Amino acid sequence: MKILVKKIAISAIAVVLITGVAIVNITRNKETVQTSSNIEPAEIEKLSNKKIGWGLKRGNNNQQPDVGSTNKKILDKYEGIYMGNADKKYVYMTFDLGYEAGYTSKILEVLKQNNVKATFFITANYLNTEEKLVKQMIDEGHIVGNHTVNHKSMPSCNLETIKKEMMDLHTAVYNKFGYEMKYMRPPKGEYSEKTVAYTNTLGYKTVMWSFAYDDWDETKQGREAYGKKKILDNVHNGEIMLLHATSKDNANILDEVIKEIKNKGYEFKNIDEFEA
Q1: In CATH, which of 3.30.40.10, 3.30.470.20, 3.20.20.370, 3.30.460.40 is domain 2-19+80-273?
Q2: Which residue of the set 96, 168, 215, 249 is catalytic?
Q3: For this structure, is 170 an active site residue?
Q4: What is this structure's pTM?
Q5: Which of 152, 198, 210, 215 is 20 to 30 Å from 52 by CA-CA measure?
Q6: Which of 151, 215, 244, 249 is catalytic?
Q7: Whole-angstrom distance, CA of residue 166 vs CA of residue 147
Q8: Quick one: angle between helices 104-113 and 248-263, nearest 10?
Q9: pLDDT, tens digit, 9 for 90 and up, residues 90-146
C-alpha cells in the first residue's frame, strides 16, 4: 500500500504540471460559517507535524483491513472517518477529482440509476473548469468534499497556508452554490497530527479510506476485469471506498460493481450516515 501511496503522489505532481496551479476566483460577498474544535491554537502548534502517508494492510476473505496503530490513534482522536462499523454491511463510496478526464457524467448517471449517493473530493482546478458537474453533484444529492486548492501535502504547509488552501476553496464553493463543505481528504493521503487537529478547527472532518487501488494511472486503463476483481475481492463491512473518477475503467465497471456488491448483501450509505 505504501507503494500505491507513492504512485498516487507522483501522479498528483504530474497532474499539477500538466494542468497548472489551480486558482480560485473568490468573491467574498458572503461570510461562511465555521465551527471550531476545543483545541486552542497554541496547543495545536505543540502537536507533531511528522508526515504520515496513509496506508493499510488488506484483509482476506472480505475482512476489514488493518489501517495501522498510528493511523487509527490519530484519526480516532480527532473523530476522523476511515472505516465504519465491523458488524454492519455498509459501504461508503468516495471519489477523488483533481481534473476531469471525461468520465464523471457517466459515473453520475450510473450512481443515479442505482440510487447510490457518493462523496466527491474536488480541487480548485476542478471547480474552476467543471462548475456544471459540481452543481450536478450537489443537485443530485451527492456530497462535495474539500481536496484543497492546489493539492499540496498538508504537513509541508504552515497553518496559515493550510487555512488558505482549505477556506479559499470552501468560500468559492459556498459563493457559487450556497453549499457548505464539511468533509476533507488530505492531498496525496499525507497528514500529521497537527494538520488533522487544525483542519478540525476550520469545521472539517477528515475522511481517509479503507480501500483503494491503482486506478488513477491513465496509462493503465483497459484493465476492467482487474479493477472489478480488486474492488469485489476487497469489499468489507464499513468500507470507505476510494475510486478515481479519472479512470475510464471505473466508469465502465461501476454499474456492474455496484450491483454485485448489493447482491452480496451490502448497502451503500452516504458519508452523512456514517456509523463507526
Answers
A1: 3.20.20.370
A2: 96
A3: no
A4: 0.87
A5: 215
A6: 244
A7: 8
A8: 10
A9: 999 999 999 999 999 999 999 999 999 999 999 999 999 999 999 999 999 999 999
